[in-house]
Amino acid sequence: MKQNQVRTTDLAKIEGTRDFSCPNRRVTISPEDETESVHSVLETKVRNVSLKELTIVSTECGSNISLVGFISIGRR
Predict the structure, then answer these.
(1) How far is CA 1 from CA 4, 10, 19, 27, 58, in A?
(2) Which residue in 4, 8, 34, 49 could disulfide with 64, CB within 3.0 to 4.6 Å?
């Protein structure tokens, strides 16, 4: 069985609304979107009480995306 490669996106390095494009499709993914219309949450990692990493899967193409940089965003 072929495993999907996990792509990492650092939200702290994205300006503006922190929306980003799916790596294989031209759909925009927003970290604020809770509808799961274009992605679903696979795993969350928390350190103390802060979100450290969120792994999602694109419902458009099946790409696994690891979102990091949440702690840095909170410090801005």
Answers:
(1) 10, 28, 31, 26, 19
(2) 4
Q: Is residue 28 included in any domain, yes or no?
A: yes
Give me the number of domains the chain comprises: 1
User: What pLDDT does residue 2 have?
Assistant: 53
Q: What is the DSSP letter of 3?
A: P
- List per-block mean pLDDT (blocks of 10 residues) for the chain, which spans 76 residues: 76 86 83 86 91 91 90 55
Query: What predicted TM-score, i.e. pTM, was given to this entire model?
Result: 0.79
Residue 8, φ and ψ in degrees, nearest 5: -105, 130
| Inside any domain, residue 1 | no
